[in-house]
Write a structure and sequence with these properties.
The protein has 673 residues and is α/β, with parallel strands linked by helices. Helix content is 41%, strand content 12%. It is globular, with a radius of gyration of 24 Å.
Amino acid sequence: MKEFMTINLEEDLKELPPPLVFEKGIRRAPSRGFRLTEAQTQIALKNALRYVPSQHHEALIPEFLEELFTLGRIYAYRFRPKERIYGKPIDEYKGNCVEGKAFQVMIDNNLDFEVALYPYELVTYGETARVCQNWLQYRLIKKYLENMTQDQTLALFSGHPLGLFTSRPNAPRVITTNALMIGMFDNMHDWEIAEEMGVANYGQMTAGGWMYIGPQGIVHGTYNTLLNAGRQELKIPVDKDLRGFLFVSSGLGGMSGAQPKAAEIAGAVGIFAEVDKSRIETRNKQGWVAYVSGDLKEVFAKAEEYLAKKEPYSIAYHGNIVDLLQYAVDHNIKIPLISDQTSCHAVYEGGYCPQGLTFEERTAMLGDKSKRDEFAAKINETLRKHFSLIKTLCDRGSYFFDYGNSFLKAVYDAGVKEVSKNGRDEKDGFVYPSYVEDIMGPLLFDYGYGPFRWICLSGKKEDLHKTDEAAMACIDKDRRYQDLDNYNWIRDAEKNKLVVGTQARILYQDAEGRVKIALKFNELVRNGTIGPVMLGRDHHDTGGTDSPFRETANIKDGSNVMADMATQCFAGNAARGMSLIALHNGGGVGIGKAINGGFGLVLDGSQRVDEIIKSAMLWDTIVGVARRNWACNPNSIETVKEYNKRYSGKSQITLPYLADDKLVAEKVRERFK
């Protein structure tokens, strides 16, 4: 093969590496179940063996079959590197271009024991979100990145490195897609078969797009959501926070683990239920949760103590969220704000734990094929009770919002048809809003504010400090209250100790703000003030994701079921020269429920990158504002009017002529008589 394929794993695999010794105390993914036929199993096995020289196949076949039958996946554990995996300073990586080295930093940060949810299974967060499918893919991806030049592009299909292809410096260095299923197969059953066969990868958002920066990546959005929920529902003034108010939710994993930190920064007292003790211990060790207890009386007493003092505080309850809410109902405890961040996009795959089971019992049932139906029935029973308790609390004055984790969709699928808004199906959403529908959509996304982020590839704390200062100087805090929130966020970011993993920062900004900050950062790199920087964002953004139950929940013209925006955003970023572009199926809500994309842009200080920033960074955000404006969202219409005036002669977005609602309703009613 060397004659035909110079970049391969043959040198590394002259001898098979020894079996992997798993480090104690590191979380392991549960069994995903085995569903393949004998013929499909043969294909799955051959698919995994394609990466390995043929002389090792006989030795590996029993091992790979054991993984597949017992875990539902071939992870190729023995090929995981022995050394610690973490995002090292960029200069410690091999490579022929800065982008090739930069993406190695990002991949390794996603798989750091301190960052990843199930690092041995390449799961970064969200129960199932993976960097790639197995450790053989990881090794080959790294090889390609080490060899890649500025005249090549690496293409990845669901974690598989298809190869390096001739391109040009202004083209993306990496193009990756994950789990893009053909329509008739775009469902959980067929996706699961494809995953087991080794041809699909659930990249979720920033796992498969290599842009995850630890739970910090969602903290700012959760902080914004809580503050604005307080302003909108609890009538808190713009210049005040949530001191004296209680927020209750569940989950302390890779995404949900942001909740206690966000609640404290927003001034609230927060209680967060989590069944997995190891996740609680991780957040407690990181300083992201202040107090831990499995006693509900103790939990609520501690909350009441800090509510009375009007001081922020975070509490982890080691137990099931349904037990916690039942206690609140039974004791008539007032909870102003309620949400949920269990991984309901994978509700039957371990993302949600039935009431009455410990985490260990849940894991054992998942691993027992004969108990899968019983497990699903317990899940459905718990979801129905969970919803009933939320309904009771809301009747007593609580405000519940779905945090985009597919919770209400899971409730609907569990047989609770009353959760449907239109009384027929789930197509028009649910009786309780998603946080995007009520809060983040109209107040942030419609203006273009979204989760802009950057990573200081030098690994130096001082570089992150300098970028914080530079970003803060770019914000006009007097323009809108959202800008003041963002200014305060970045001002206090270092004090709030948000970094988990490599030196990174999240900051909500609109289109113009992102461009301004990116140009400033590139200037700092050019002047030698800081090292190279990776720019990116969560796919959960103004224009990055089409998802009717989350990101596009506040689009009411019927186009919330279309995936044109995310696809056009992806294509436009390719045309404008982003360093990495990604397009995925599923996001945070599950297969078939979202199409989402993201990008990475390496700032090397060049004028070339300045031009990419001016074009691509603006497009990446304004495409979403443009689509929201066409859906007749008022804040987007006003933002587009400002954009069209500013870029007159260079760019123009189509504005809608607004119809009179009463006139339309009257004429349609007459026609239907």
